[in-house]
Amino acid sequence: MSQTSDSARLAGENKYWQRAYASSNVSESRDVYDQWAMEYDQDVSGADYAAPELAAQTVVKLLGDADKDDIKILDAGCGTGLVGLRLRDLQPKGLVIDGLDLSQKMLDIARNTDVYRDLHVADLSQRIALQDDSYDIVVCVGTLTHGHVGPSVFPEFVRIAKKGGFVVATILDEIWESKGYKGEVERLGDAGRSKLVSDDVIGLTRATTTGGRRVVLRKL
To answer: Which residues form the Methyltransferase type domain (predicted)?
Structure first.
């Protein structure tokens, strides 16, 4: 990661962000986020991090005029619950949101938001212990960065989504192609498992227009 990369500028001098990007295994990542949990919301707010808002807006747009009673959403890598909170603000009724995260301490904070039905510890680099066709939308924000979770999570997200449902994920643009995420999305399309709806470039912060990639897949 170069010193002038978008992710480096977002991390700035924040020791936890830098450690998260540098982590090379599950244990390191878990330790970073456990230690960061109490300061995380303040740090991302100070950085004016835009991805949770943009992802929540995308989810609500995809729902459109559909009957929103009992819409089931999985927030994969939910952290302290920033995406869930924005979804509640934008769509206060009818959504059932479950969350997964590697860090129990992050989940403890998310639980205090009263947004989530269920919260469980999960390593997204492994098979996710959820049934096929379980959720209308799977959303993943801030997790597909430098670190241990790789593109193999996309087949899992598609598996868990209901037929006709969606996967909404944000990815660092600098690793979209180099780390194989684009290739995995294309393989899912070639296999007839999902269709790429969009993969637009987004700003990592509200003051920028680049650095991230917002990917939307529809399960076939």
So the answer is: 74-168
Assessment of whether the complete model's pTM goes beyond 0.90? yes
| Dihedral Cα 165, 187, 211, 203, nearest 10 deg | -20
Pairing of strands 71-76, 119-121: unpaired
Distances (CA, A) of 178 to 129, 167, 181, 195: 28, 21, 8, 21
Instruction: Extract the tokens encoding 64.
Output: 């459109």
Which residues, 6+ apart, have CB-to-CB distance to 162 below 8 Å?
A: 133, 134, 135, 136, 219
Tell me how crowded residue 15 is: count the other CB atoms within 10 A of its CB. Answer: 12
Place of tokens 């995308």: 58
Residues in the chain predicted with pLDDT less than 70, given as ranges, are 1-13, 66-68
The domains found in the chain, sorted by start residue, are 6-219 (3.40.50.150)
State the pLDDT at residue 59: 96
Q: How far is CA 136 from CA 55, 95, 202, in A?
A: 15, 10, 24
